[in-house]
Amino acid sequence: MVIIGPRIIEAYVGEYASGKSEVAVNRALDLAETGRQVTLVDLDIVEPCYTLRPIKKELEQKGITVLAWETRDMVGLGETGNILKAENRWALRRTGDIILDIGYGVEGAKTLNLLEDAGSDPDLKVYAVVNIARPMTGSIAEIVQYIRELNRVDGLINNSHLGDDTDLEIVQEGVRVVGEAARILGIPVVATTAVVEFADRIGPVDGAGNPVRKLVRYMPRTLW
Amino acid sequence: MPEKPIQGEKRVFVTGNEVVAWAALAAGAEIMYGYPITPQNEIMHYWTRMIPKYGRRFLQTEDELSAGFTTVGGVLAGRRAFTATAGPGNTLMQEPISMAEAMRLPIVVVVQQRGGPSTATVIYSQQEVTLTTLGGNGEGLRVVYSTATHQELFDYTIKSFNTAWKYRFPTFVLGDGYQAKMRESLTFYDPAERGIEMVPTDAYVGRPGMPGVDRPPKHMRNTYNMEEELYEVLQGYLADFAKAAPEIAEHETFDTEDADLVIISHGVVSRACKMAVRDLREQGYKVGYFRPITLRPMPEKELQEVAGKAKQLLVVESAQGQLARLVKEVIYGSTAEMLSLFKPGVGITSEEVIARVKEIKG
Amino acid sequence: MTVQPAMPKCWRVETKPHKFCPGCGHGLVLKALGQAIDELGIQDKVVFGCDIGCSLLSWDFFNMDTVQTHHGRTNPVITGMKRANSDIIGVAYMGDGGGYAIGAQHLVSSATRNERITAILVNNTQYGMTGGQMAPTTMPGQKTETSPYGRDAETTGSPTQGPEMVAAIAPEGAYVARGSVANMKQLKGYIKKALENQMAGNGFSFVEALSLCPTNWRTNAKDTWKFLEEDMYKYFKVGELRVPGPREKEGQ
Fold this sequence. Notes:
The structure holds three protein chains of three kinds.
Chain A lengths: L8 E6 L5 H14 L4 E6 L12 H6 L3 E3 L29 E6 L21 E7 L9 H10 L5 E4 L9 H18 L3 E7 H7 L9 E4 L9
Parallel strand pairs in A: 1-4, 1-5, 2-3, 2-4, 5-6, 6-7, 7-8
Chain B lengths: L8 E7 H11 L4 E4 L6 H14 L2 E4 L3 H13 L4 E5 L1 H16 L5 E6 L15 H6 L8 E4 L3 H18 L3 E6 H5 L1 E7 L37 H22 L2 E4 L6 E4 L4 H14 L4 E6 L1 E3 L3 H10 L2 E6 L4 H9 L6 E6 L7 H12 L1
Parallel strand pairs in B: 2-3, 2-4, 4-5, 5-7, 6-7, 10-11, 10-13, 13-14
Antiparallel strand pairs in B: 1-8, 6-12, 9-11
Helix pairs in contact in B: 1-2, 1-6, 3-4, 9-12
Chain C lengths: L25 H15 L5 E5 L14 E4 L5 H11 L4 E7 H7 L1 H9 L5 E6 L2 E2 L5 E2 L18 H4 L5 H8 L5 E6 L3 H16 L5 E6 L3 H4 L3 H15 L3 E4 L10
Parallel strand pairs in C: 1-2, 1-3, 3-4, 4-8, 7-8
Antiparallel strand pairs in C: 5-6, 7-9
Helix pairs in contact in C: 1-7, 3-4, 4-6
């Protein structure tokens, strides 16, 4: 018997290229695998044509609903094209679980303001994705400062990695650094995320006892 | 004294545009001038975010003409100054770059190529090769580095400031929209700790002392009265460029010794081509690889050597023969057959390169 | 009393819904323009030019001949057209970046030459399409991607007062106004007068429309209107600055 718990509404925010989309995509797919109804929403408004668009079809075949631009919808003229898809604005009114992939920007986290009900949805959790290999969130002090500048963050995700050059060391160092930043901020570390190879080596929980989420890398395919 | 942006070495995971901003910081660039255009915007976004901490400056200008001319002004004032642009912005910038050529001003310009002609796409191309190497109403007295990885983007952005200030020719880092947005790991470093000495800058104007009394006044111009006068100036410039060219030119090559077909590409496309050459070698094809890292000046001697040995040269680029024209000029007289895989404004995969080679080889 | 149809007759139905973000002001400005064109019955005479930036998303918006030009260059393209064929009613449609930054010299020169064209400039205080950078119209303290610590007027200047500038330099016969999407009836009236002024051959006609960009302001519906009516109105005064003919007087 599949037990479907309460509605899960999670928004993934964070620094440019911190891995928000990867973490959000994997989270959505993991939830769908347990039989839940999931909608994944692309809210990157700085670079709308660089994010989920190329893998939308593939994700939908895996059983989730994806609210993102499709190539044929893009105007394809000049600049990046129209930015916010109208139906995304009403995403929180949908039934089932909703995973929001929020783009970056100097006030990136404020993007949530564009969603109807974002201020009042009782189930909404905002998680900041942190990769300590990102130069502006490389130290405890920098992470704390960065998170404090965001409007609201309910938890941190340690997504420390170096792309193809990832090793166990960077993931473990992330556990320590992100954990310490979370302690100072008084918010939990929701999970450590790592590609399957490292997730398997770490086990179901990381050194600090946080759950480990396995990542399958979809995003490298979104460029070419 | 503001702290150094990078202490020691650090493995990081970033996008190409961020790499440029960090490399410019590490190189001691003092001021950036720029105007919004995709896909280079994040160079400005990150530069403006980081500079208060490191005491550097930024001016957002009213357009790319102005961004280019203010960069010229910054260099005249003796500052390590740079700008970044793409596509239609690169077109506009040819006017200030032409002035920099005429007056031997060491401006640094980062170009993240997008589709053309005109506004076209914001995404990617290698269609700004002709414009960047030979644009303006002159003789192409400029240096152009074409990068392929984030590490190179970092290395050559730093190097471009030194090349510019050492030889006093406008210097370009030619990237593209894919490199701009792509994420990969690389090592950030402080150039000094790697033994890279930054070539000192000096002011053309505004030096201390009373002009005409303590020092001669600086009188600079780019206009000449007579043909002979211009001719004489250009002869000097062209001789300087010819002398500097072999020192500046860089390339990368492998497996050409016994190759009867050599693939030639530059920039991000070389990633696919190198992969293709390795795969084809494993399958028994006698293929080699050559990549000019500098597109201006070209690595002439090395390319001629390769063309002298190979039976066929396959030029692969995301443009309709812009690199091929540069190659042909260098290897004029060679009997090697010229073949092509041109996809203007579109990315090229290793599978496509392999398929093209197999089509050629039958 | 007639009820205004929801969609102006000169809009192209096949390209609707339009491509602007939800809550964008462009749709409203183009509605005011469409209504003015309908009322004047000039759909077959107008050639519409749009710029680079979000304005380019209007390239197939109307059942009218349309040219999408280069960034900042819509004024000269429409000027060239009008000079070559005076039967055309030329409309140049652009954003604040296109008109006040990269194309500022063209705006100034079109105004000083009193070109018989109608320029409509949409002011949303930043570059929307490239991801929200500082524009000439960005207000002091406003955070954008290239003013991440808020616009510093000391080092980057104050918001461009476009209509005031055009009003100061245009010869007699020019029409200059600033409207707002918060007052659609008035905005349509200004645009209509700007078109009539061109048709009468009086001179350059310029309307700046204060607009909305919830996407890059990152505002909900309520705060979007507050941004326009409270913050923008502090810097940008709505009204007519130049009205030609016997009625011509400053600040009418």
